[in-house]
Every structure is written in C-alpha cells, then in structure tokens.
Prior knowledge:
The structure holds two protein chains of two kinds.
Chain A: H1 9-35, H2 46-77, H3 84-107, H4 110-116, H5 134-157, H6 162-178, H7 188-223, H8 227-248, H9 261-272, H10 274-289, H11 298-321, H12 325-331, H13 335-364, H14 373-410, H15 417-448
Helix pairs in contact in A: 1-2, 1-15, 2-3, 2-5, 2-13, 3-5, 5-6, 6-7, 7-8, 7-10, 7-11, 7-13, 8-9, 8-10, 10-11, 11-13, 11-14, 13-14, 14-15
Chain B: H1 16-42, H2 44-51, H3 56-81, H4 88-122, H5 131-162, H6 172-197
Amino acid sequence: MKYSSQAVAKPYFIFALILLAGELLFGILMGIQYVYGDFLFPLIPFNVLRMVHVNLLIVLLLFGFMGATYYLVPEEAEHELWSPKLAIITFWVFVVAGVLTILGYLFVPYAELTKLTFNNILPTMGREFLEQPLPTKVGIVIVVLSYVLNTAMTVIKGRKTVITTVLLTGLIGLAVFFLFSFYVPDNLIEDKFFWWFTVHLWVEAVWELILGAILAFVVLKVTGVDREHIDKWLYLIIAMTMVSGILGTGHHFFYMGAPEYWLWIGSISSAVEPLPFFLMILFVFTMSKERKIQHDNEIALTWAKGTAVISFLGAGVWGFMHTLAPVDMYTHGTQLTAAHGHLSFYGAYVMIVFTVISYAMPILRGRPHGNCKAAQKRELIAFWMMNIGMVGLTLALTVAGIMQIMDQRVGTHLVGFMESQASISSVYFVRLGFGLLVFAGLLVYFSSFFVKEDKK
Amino acid sequence: MPDNAVKKELYPPGDFGVWIIIYVELITFGLFFIGYAFSRRANLEMFNHSQLMLETTSGFINTLFLVTSSYFVVKAVTSIQNLTHDRREEFNKKASKWLLLAMLFGAGFLVNKIFEFSHMFGEGLSLSTNKFFMFYFMLTGFHFMHVLLGTVILFNIFQRTRIHGYTVEDHKGIISGAAYWHMVDFLWIILFPLVYIIR
C-alpha cells in the first residue's frame, strides 16, 4: 500500500461483501417462493423480499464503488486521501442508514413505513429501486456528496489522471441523477421519465464511467501497460457509453404513452449500447496480451477479463435481445427482463467490485504480490462457480421468459398469468439450483480469505 | 534500409479509435436512413407533401458550407503533411489559417440551421407533427450535434497548430479530427438529398 489513507477502503469492501451475501440469500428465498408460493408466508411476502433484494444490490454496489475509489484515488493522485476521517464517518453513517432501512422494510409494513418516514411531506417512495424512505434518501445524498467532495479534493490536490477524471465525472453524475428520485410527478408517464432519469442514467451511463475507471486502474496495475495506451481505450469506451447510454434511455419509454419518436431513438441508440462492452473485452484481452509484467496476483486479471465478458453478455447481448421496440412489445416485463437484469448487474457491477477487491484486498492485508497460490486457486474455483451459476440462472430465466411470452403474448392458445407460471415451475427449479450454486461459490470465495499464507 | 524499402504507411490514417467511432456513427445513421426509407414507402403521399414544407435553399447553402469547410480541412492537413523540420512554424501557421476558415464555415452551417429550426418551430412543426417531421428533426437534430462536436474538435486542432504542435512524425491528431469532420460532411451529403430532395 503506497498511501496509508488507502486503508479506509477495507471496511467498505468487507461490508460490500457482507451485503452481497445478504443479497444472494434474499434472492434464494425468492427463488424458493417461485416454486413454493406460500414459503415464508405471511412472515415475509414476495414484494418485501424483492424490495430488499434490489435495494441491497444498490447499496452493496455503492459500498464497493466507494471502497474502490478510496483505494485507487490516493494512488492515482499520488496524494493521501483528503480526509480519511470523513471517509470513515461516511462509512458508519451509511452502514447505520442502510441497516435501519432494510430492517424497516422487513419489520414494518411498507404503508406504515411511508407514514413513519414523512412521505406525506415529500412523497418519494414506492418506485422500484428507489423505495427508500425520505430520511434514507437524504442520507444517501449526504453520503454521496461527502464521497464526491473527498474524492474531488484529493484529485485537486494531487496528480490528475484520465482514470480519476473519468471516475470523478461518474461520481458527480451519480450524485446529480439521484436527485431525480426526489421528484414524483402525478402524471404516470412523467413519473416513469423521472424514475428512469435516475435508474437508467445510473446503470447505463454514469456507473459505466465508474466501471471503466476501476477496470482501467486494475488493468494498468496488473499488466504494466503504458498509461497512455490505457487512457486512449478508456476515452473511447466512455465516449461510446455516454452517447449510446444517454439516448438509450429511450428504450424505457416504449408504449407507455410517450411520443412515437422514442421507439426510434430508443431502439437505435440501444442497439449501439453493446459496443462499449465489446470494446471493453477487446481492451482487457489486448492489454493482457501486451502486458509488460507478470503480476503474481493472477486472479485479479482473471476477474477483470470476467467482468468484460460477462458484462458484454449480460448488458450487451441480453440487453439487445429485447431492446428493439417491435421485440420489446412482446417481451416487456417478462422473465427475459429479469434474465438481462441479473446478468448485467452481476457482470458489470458485482464483478468489477470483485475485481478491485481481488486486486486491492491482498495489498490492504499486507500482501503486495497478491494472495498465495492456494488462495488464488480457491478464488478461481469460486469465480467459476459464481459465473456458471449466474449464466445458468440467466439461461433458466430466459427460457422462463420465452415460455411466458409464448403462453401469454404470441402463442395461439393464450393462457392466464398463474396458469403460465405453473407451466414454468420446473424451469424455476433449475433457476433455484443455479442460484444455490452462486451462493455456494460466494462461500468458497469467502473461504479463500482464510487460506493460510505459505511461509517463505 | 534497403533501397526498395518504402516507409510503412499508416492505415487507416489517424488514430484507430476515431475509426471505430466513425463506423459506429455511420451504422447508427445508416439505421435511421433505412428507417426513413421504409417509413416513407409506407406513407408516400404524406412524406412528399410534408417535404414541400422544407427550405431546400437553406439546405443547399448548408451543403455548400460543409463541403467547402471540408476542403479547407484538407488544405490544413496537406499543410501539416508537407511541413519540414526547419519550416515547422510556417506550416503550422498555414494550417491554422485553413482551420479557422473551416470552423467559420462550420459555424455558418450551425447558424443557418438554427434559423431553419426556429422558422419551422415557429410554424408549429415538431417531432410529433407526423412521421416525416419526426425523422426530419431526429436526423437533422443529431447531425446538428455532430457538426457542433466537430467544430469543437476543429477548435482543439486549431489551438494545437497555433502552438506549432504538429510535427512530421506526430500529426495523428489533425488527421483523426479531419476524418471525423469528413464523416460529418459525408453524412450530410446523404441526408440532404434523402430528406430534402428525393421525391
């Protein structure tokens, strides 16, 4: 570790991983509810589990991004973090706010929660991903602002690199676009617009900048390729991401009462959206081929390659599958969307968190050359278990989605929702099996942290 | 070096990255052009009628602006390519003059287009008027943004020539910028007849 303040990243990484375990656990509980409808009823209904599942995802990724930022920014800026104390305070504020919110979801009926948290003063609750009560939302704003401030001040005081510039742009975007979550218009169509201004512009625009910056940093470190070379790739990837991603918001405005031109803008722009992900594959594999050093931490590069490939599949291929308006008319809101959602969030964002943890955590634990071979081997097994699990889960959901579409939208004998779900139940079993494989993979991954170092 | 050896020519010229962007842009516009063509075939009468409301003269003037501007960019690139070590300053200066003219013509396009847009908005026409105007505003609007970006790129290159930044060995930047500007010009050369003229 070059700068002592980089150590603040450690609690962020650990907490992100704990939340990931919770994320998977709640996913599995839901997977069981898909096959045994009354499982956990009336203790935790499906809608509550789902809300916890998606909210945990957002929070764990934010913790991961923050950890990654606090680790990489001092090294890039060649300057200690502006305020490590602020980073630690922010950590605890976020932990407390996050845990209280999840407990609120689990133990207080949502309608009651809205009353308790002043939703009547400024109604912001109820929208998927943005279900957080008002105090939590305000808390997120404060946490994110202090995060942006800490990062910006460090960058200003130190060396400016393309990686930190891209990262900071992403962070500012993250803060700005979250503000749309405070506005809930009465008009349902306008409401959808503002909802997507946060959700879409996060995951398909500014978060991709954060992803690109973290990926570039890790690749730079483990391959030793010239910075200039990596910067060029990063510019190219983010330029394409921003252009296609921003206009691609249009693919959420199909057939909901918005003007027809969104069908064209949304379809064509989002057809371009897989390209930056494809470029990311080219980038990581080219850099790996042209590497100038053979870093002992081989698994970090494996995670980086995995991020590029799985994010291309999840966000790129599975996204494109149903992004064209005429196709989306039949596929909208089916399990095909869930398939895309799962693999893209996992491939692009969960995996980049794994990548940076895999690179930084050994250093933070006093192992500058990475973990020992045995630990890396264990991590590799976890890598494959989780990836096979996620791809299997995605394929199962894709089959479920196609069956749903045939049953309810394009087939000759259309059936009702519950009847269709019953016909898919065997596929849901398969999905659950792959979900368990992912969870087992995560446990193997955790165990890799406890493999004893070789005594040299 | 053996006598028959020739210096390896860089292909494609400029930065490889700019070519990826150019191809993606061409594909994107291409998809819009195809969309336009199919929609036109399905609504021939409405398209032909709506087309009559366009200001063809203004479109033609803009074509001249862009084509001429592209010519100036070619002249700027040639100046840089012909520079020698001892006359670096002189050739960079020459290139900067050509680039200034190119930018002026680019700006001319933008101003003229703003007048055209404001006139059409004044007539109550918008993206939602009908399918023809939806395509018209989308295509010309996207293209407008590309001209804007292209002008900014030209400005950056222009700044570099003012500090005599290009050398015989390193002038990839100006070639990349020129390639982008030609793409903007090329797209207009297709867009103008397709949307304004062909009936």
